[in-house]
Amino acid sequence: MMQRMQELVKILGEASRKYYQESTEIMSNREYDALYDELAALEESSGVILSGSPTRKVGYETLTELPKKAHPSRMLSQNKTKSVEELQHFLGGQAGLLSWKMDGLTVVLTYESGTLSEAVTRGDGEIGAVVTANARTFQNIPLQIPFWGKLVLRGEAVIRYPDFEEINRELPETETQYKNPRNLCSGSVLQLSSAVTASRRVRFYAFGLVEAEGKSFRLHSEELGWLKELGFESVDFRFVSAGDLPQAVEAFKQEIPLYPIPSDGLVLLMDDIAYGKSLGTTAKYPRDSIAFKWADELAMTRLLDIEWSASRTGLINPVAIFEPVELEGTAVSRASVHNVTILEGLELGIGDEISVYKANMIIPQIAENFTRSGTCRAPGACPVCGSPTHINDTGEVKTLYCLNPDCPAKQIKGFELFVSRQAMNIDGLSEATLEKLIDIGAVKEPADLFRLEEHKEKIVSLEGFGEKSFRNLLDAAKTASSTTLPRLIVALGIGNVGPATARLLCRAFDEDLEKLKEASAEELCAVEGIGPVTAESIRAFFADAKETEKLSHLLPYLSFPQPEKSNTEQTLSGLSFVVTGSLEHFGNRDALKAAIEARGGKVSGSVSSKTTCLINNDAASSSSKNQSAKKLGVPILTEEEFMEKYQMEGER
Predict the structure, then answer these.
(1) 193 Cβ contact partners less than 8 Å away, ≥ 6 residues apart
(2) Are 158 and 119 within one domain?
(3) CB–CB of 26/10 below 8 Å?
């Protein structure tokens, strides 16, 4: 028993260290929970708790150069259950608050004389990192509040799913996408540069009041209501009793697919503050609250195949393909196995009987392999280009990589950008279709998308294709071949050059590609909105012989009709604007940008001393653009103020 306990402490400790300090997963949440529960049971039966046991540790010390600070009292974690009946027993005859268990980074805020004076992360529960400058950039945090006594509150810093997806979309094509919102949020809050934090769209949701000088409350719900009055957003909750807990849990469950904030369960808190305090705490848990983890709905099935999915970074991940089963109301037939370490740990083989579930009711995972034939092995050749692969073994995690720098899989995201709506806008070319065309050798460079006729027989024989689909592809390519220079510049995938920057460049160089290709770094930096980093990206692209060769192959297939000269009065000529946030009078930011440019104005992606004004309907927000405008003395106008000042009309 003691040997097994020592093994479990070591295994769980290493898994926690990798997860919290390196944002690396070496086992699934389900595996961790099972081992944790095994250790807790052994400790209870033996009466022995080993040094370093995760059942007594609250978290991990943050590895960062940020200043550290001890919390006045130890921040405890919460006991957990997957049983609604246990929730009912826990609550008894008390009234409770049932809320989301948000999956981000816990932060403690302190306000003095109405001003945010300090922000400290939870850290290991005893010592956290001081992140005050970073917290001031959180998108929804009040920097000033109408309360002059000392205020201390706790909440969760999170990055919402829509923001996370947009951040990934905005990444340069050469960068690896972020894995999940929780890891990105943690890394963003613990940044040494608050400017980086500001760009990550971190938000803060209060879930508990620690101290409010001169104030007292009887109920936690009253505390949360008061914090809302001060300007804080708080965690969503429902009032519950033991009798209606099952219905409340089910209501939260139904909201999961649409809830925008990452969560990994629910929290049940006794509403009566005095009663909750009277219950005291254990060594690790408070007795006035408990976490609820969703019970996994398991389904038995049979493994049909392991598909190896290559990415633009060269990483090749195993994906399990199995006989379709229904989980949480949807049909599921595939699940990521994450890496070679997990593949080997599950001892997977074709035909094995496995059980599958959805982690947090969203992400399909393999729970267990009952056959364990272990016949599946990492391939020695890349599934896309056939080049040799390499297993990178850190001693803790094994991952598979393709060694070919020119592997088409590494270029798939580049092709996706090329055909996207903001670039060449070739309709009907999804990622799946592009992968098929690459696999059969029909597409090796962008110009190939305009000469698909040469591969007609291969394409029409593909699954899901035929004469009509093939003809539609040819028609879409022909339509897209008549384009604009800014669209082509975006399609080329030059680092740091998006649609707005492409329009600025083309205008500055008279819509002349040759002028742009020959422009020096100094000439590029002279264009408002173009800095040294972007200028270097442009120069490096046009100095790359491979890129210029592909461009030379592409240009004969394209035409650039000159747009008709606009009769619109150039009332904004010589003026420069930055647009951010949501709009009311224009369909989206692109529509407003187009309206400004049609009147001779320029639209940049960042605020500078040359910016005429920043257009933002949330003029009071603490966003990085607002802060830059205030520092530089650039006016911040709402959409209506801008329209009135410059005599613009909306387009909705």
Answers:
(1) none
(2) yes
(3) no
584-599: pLDDT as tens digits: 888 778 788 888 888 8
- Sign for the CA dihedral angle at 174, 180, 185, 187 comes to negative
Residues 87, 218, single domain; the answer is yes
pLDDT score at 416: 86
Q: Give domain status of residue 54, yes or no.
A: no
What CA–CA distance (Å, rounded) separates 539 from 518?
8
Give the single-character DSSP code of 603.
E
Q: What are the DSSP E strand ranges found in 370-520?
A: 389-393, 398-402
Type of residue at 499: P
Which residues constitute the domain of residue 11?
Answer: 2-46
Per the structure, the count of domains in the chain is: 6
Active site residue 101: yes
Mean pLDDT, residues 338-344: 90
Shared domain for 372 and 287, answered yes or no, is no
One domain, residues 453 and 513: no
Look at the pTM and tell me if it is higher than 0.70.
no
Question: How far is the C-alpha of 403 from the C-alpha of 104, rounded, in Å?
Answer: 35
With tokens 């070591």, the residue in question is 10
Task: Please give the helix or strand (H or E) that residue 18 lies within, else none.
Answer: helix 2-22
Helix axes 532-543, 545-554, angle to 10 degrees: 70
> DSSP of 302-338, one letter per residue?
EEEEEEEEE-TTSEEEEEEEEEEEEETTEEEEEEE--
Tokens, residue 211: 């101290």
In the chain, the percentage of residues whose pLDDT exceeds 90 is: 38
Any idea what the CATH number is for the domain that residue 638 is in? 3.40.50.10190
Spatial strand order in the sheet of 96-102: 80-81, 289-292, 263-270, 96-102, 237-240
Provide the 8-state DSSP code for 383. T
β-strand 315-327 against 398-402: which pairing, if any?
antiparallel
Give φ, ψ of 597 to 5 degrees.
-65, -35
Q: List the beta strands (DSSP E) in 159-279.
A: 203-212, 237-240, 263-270
Whether residue 50 is predicted with pLDDT greater than 80 in this model: the reply is no
Same domain, 215 and 361: no
Q: Which CATH number is 539's domain given?
A: 1.10.150.20
Separation of alpha carbons 255 and 273, rounded Å: 28
Q: How many helices (H) and strands (E) does the chain have?
A: 24, 22
- Is the domain of 616 the same as that of 499? no
**HEC letters along 232-245:** CCECCEEEECCCCH
Of 18, 101, 358, 413, the active-site residue reads 101
Place of tokens 């050469």: 174
> Domain boundary at 446, 466, 481, which?
481
